[in-house]
Amino acid sequence: MALRNSKKNWSEFLISVFLLFIFWMIISFPADVYSKLGFINLIEHAVLGLIFAFIIVYIYPLNIFNSDEIKKYINVKTLFRLGVYFIRLGFDMCFAGIDVARRVMRKKLLISPGIVQVKTSLGADDEIALNANSITLTPGTITIDAQKIKKGSIFWVHCISQESVKEILETGGFVEKIAHVYGKKKK
Questions:
Q1: Per-residue pLDDT tens for 8-41?
Q2: CA distance 98 to 162
Q3: What pTM value is reported for the model?
Q4: What DSSP string describes 18-45?
């Protein structure tokens, strides 16, 4: 990741604070909001999260998000496609979990573990990160390494079954879906 200009403009600062605050609220949401203490806990969590978000963004010397990244994600089409992608990823994770359970619960294991190298056309840092994390979140696969190359990226993936991964790679897997999220055409 290239170092960014350490000067922060107000829009980047406030959007970074807002996104960190939202992240904080998601990971620390109190379980019982509707009781007396639950509402008080919610207010306490919100105030604490806002304070932490301001401190982190103020102290961190680099911009967390630059203007180009902000523009990319404020686009309504991109946000909608990203939401659809996450829904599809959830289904893929469920089906992969069922497949892994089916493979390991048989008397004769249907696994052929190995490492597969995958070349993709994804070149932006956020696209590479989304693909690597999507692969790792899917049961039966783990991204070992991801590297940016001149025209795209290379991933090394450890998988429970090389045959199923080769089949997914031939059909495009996550790469086509991620390219669609960011509005890239098929080549």
A1: 577 778 888 888 888 888 777 655 555 566 667 7
A2: 17
A3: 0.70
A4: HHHHHHHHHHT--S-TTSHHHHHHHHHH
